[in-house]
Specification:
Number of domains: 1
Largest sheet: 4 strands, mixed
Shape: globular
Strand order of the largest sheet: 2-1-3-4
Order of helices and strands: HEHEEHEHH
Helix content: 25-40%
Distance between the termini: 20 Å
CATH class: Alpha Beta
CATH topology: Glutaredoxin
Structural class: alpha+beta
CATH superfamily: Glutaredoxin
Radius of gyration: 14 Å
């Protein structure tokens, strides 16, 4: 395995789930989503996930703007071995969705535990090009 492959493997399949929050051109844009509180949502994720093994990453545009606000939950190494794959969630505008994302990540995330039922309403499948770029973003 090359050094690059090892680094990529560690980035997307580490010991805990990874929550990636898009804050690019459309995601986190209050003008596009009046009434949402993107700064408050990010602050809540930091507060809940801080001090845990769950990793939180804020990234620039994931190129899935039609689904903004986008969050990706990537499985832990154990979750990936159990068949878990990154889950893309769109239109994450309500604080309740943020709370469910945090709870799911803390309970093990993809491959370990099922997502809360209402997160199914936010799931979408990005194009392969967008998905591959999102998994490499760091």
């Amino acid at each position: 395995m090359s050094r690059k492959s090892k680094r990529r493997s560690a980035d997307i399949g580490g010991g805990a789930p990874l929550v990636t929050v898009c804050r690019g051109c459309c995601c986190g844009n209050r003008a596009k989503h009046p009434g949402s509180d993107p700064a408050g949502q990010l602050g809540r994720l930091r507060a809940v996930l801080g001090g845990t093994d769950v990793r939180l990453r804020v990234t620039d545009c994931l190129d899935a703007c039609e689904h903004s606000n986008v969050v990706i939950i990537s499985p832990s190494a154990a979750g990936r071995r159990a068949g878990g794959r990154p889950v893309w969630l769109g239109e994450v505008l309500a604080m309740e969705a943020v709370e469910e994302i945090a709870a799911w990540a803390l309970s093990g995330g993809p491959g370990i535990t099922d997502p809360p039922g209402t997160l199914d309403l936010h799931g979408f499948s990005p194009s392969r090009r967008v998905r591959d770029a999102g998994e490499r973003t760091g």
